[in-house]
Please model this.
Amino acid sequence: MTAAAAFKETPAAAPQSGARLLVRTLERLGVEVVFGYPGGAIMPVYDALTGSGLKHILVRHEQGAAFAADAWARSTGKVGVCMATSGPGATNLITGIANAMMDSVPMVCITGNVATHLMGTDAFQEIDILGVTLPIVKHSWVVRDPADIPAVIEEAFHVAHSGRPGPVLVDLPKDVQVGMATDDYGFHYPNEAEPLDHAAIAEAEQLIRAAERPLIYVGGGVKIAGATQALRDFAERTGIPAVSTLNALGSIPTDAPGFLGMLGMHGTRAANEAVQDADLLIVFGARFDDRATGKLNAFAPQARVIHFDIDPAEIGKLRAAHVPVVGDLKAGIEALTTRVAKAPLAIDPWIIRSASAARRHAFRYDAPGEGVYAPALLNELSRAAGDRFIAACDVGQHQMWVAQHCAFSRPEAHLTSGGLGAMGYGLPAGLGAKMANPDAHVVTVSGDGSFMMNIQELATLRRYGVALKIVLLDNSSLGLVRQWQELFFEENYSEVDLSDNPDFVAVAQAFGVEAFRISRREEVSAGIQRLLNAPGPCLAHVLIDPKENVWPLVPPGKSNAEMMHDTRFEGDI
Amino acid sequence: MTDTIHITIDRADGSLQRLIGLVERRGFHIDGMSLSDEGAMRRVSMQVRGRDAGRCADNLGRQIDKLHGATRVGFAAATYGFQTGAAA
Model:
């Protein structure tokens, strides 16, 4: 009998191996795809995968599995799943787990480990992965009895997805994977709704009515809470201008009236000026990250703060809230809208002033020269892809250009390593997102530094025929570090030169991925069409000016009021 | 200034390590600690001191509240008191 037949013929109530209990539980929880890489200590699980309903995607490095699972989760709202063996397999997951933790992404990471009697003996490929990952998981478990596997896995999914989401880790020693037990677990976690704090919402309404210059500060929590439409209703019905964090881009459509763009280090001038001038910040699901606030004690110096968040630990962590509203964002925003929208706010001068600033400081795309201007390319790309666009960014200048210049109509369309800033995220994230959203135009936007960090996943694209599109912006350097060295280290360019990069077109083609190169502005439009229309995975290698910088920029440690900018690229066209 | 926090924690793998790591990672010295048996649970009493003036025990308490398998007991309830920012 084949393994597949054996799997199907084993009744759920019969004693089964721990590995098979794991697989059956994942199936029961509705898991469709698992990203992973096998090895000695997780071989029983891989044996049990055969014939199951789970689709396993064999990546070429465990970090790729974690990033792909992360993007699967971000783009679907479901829990991403990745797995790896013990020792180096488990440690290779770490950057991906930390990435998910920083950006509150629900992810279940399953690791094999040496048998329990070998744990603590420095056995081959033994790592205390539970100990190693303690600071970067929402919770973690070592399962010591196969009978506990269904309950632990169910709890793991619940913890990962509930409240403020995050990654969890389940470590399965090898003897637990092969030990026999019966699946008689029947408990399912109820959906728990926190009661709304109506008194706090009433206080919030009073502050809003008293404000002359209120501003909405949108964080990634809005998307996570499924509160995007509630937020849009609030913004539209009140007319209050809005700014967004990196992770919240798309929560309010880029082109919506009143949307001033991203705030912070590479935010728009209109957004940062509005924050500095506001007399009230209405914060939805944001955590006052230092990249958003700049110098904290100079951030929004005139503003009172209303802070909505599901995580009580975020309230007052970095900035005081005059009115904290802890609980589900969607319900909270809807209740606030009901109250505030009953009567118009007297903020027309502020709305007009904000709109005027947005026009005055709008990005321009008529940069001089014949070479490819990356911001213009990205803007055109996102508009050509339209509502089907999903950008999976790497980290560096290109990441900031995507945030500044791409048009997003929904927050799930912008996948970026916001908190951790992990180079190497883009390619495996694009893989995960495209697998989850096969009808979308999923485009990985990478740089020549980031791309090399997980370039091996081109093989995964090819193997599964994943039609991910890749825009590789190549400035032959670590551009953002080079920019900082230019501006803050007296042009001492230390270890940023990548001019000996390989021929990326040839490399992609060697992996079996279609690829082409563009280097002149006149090639951009045709290149975008070729990329979007390619039937399979396709890479556009784009040569850009190595000296191009990201503007505006708030210098590190400075107030958002102290922006450096290049007026050539701002203003009414 | 030293604050004392009392917590009950379960006996799961890593639970004590998780608690201690959280306290230190969030910027607090642990000046004293005792651990006692309470049946299925364990009770931890911990004297903690912020590494700088910006560290707020209330905030630490709310972080501890997020730990699974740990419950704060015998510590002033969170009051949303704040230590930084323009609106303090």
User: Anything to note?
Assistant: Chain A has a mean pLDDT of 95. The first strand of chain A starts at residue 16 and ends at 17. The interface with chain B takes residues 130-131, 134-135, 138-142, 144, 159, 296-297, 299-305, 311-313, 315-322, 324 of chain A (CB under 8 Å).
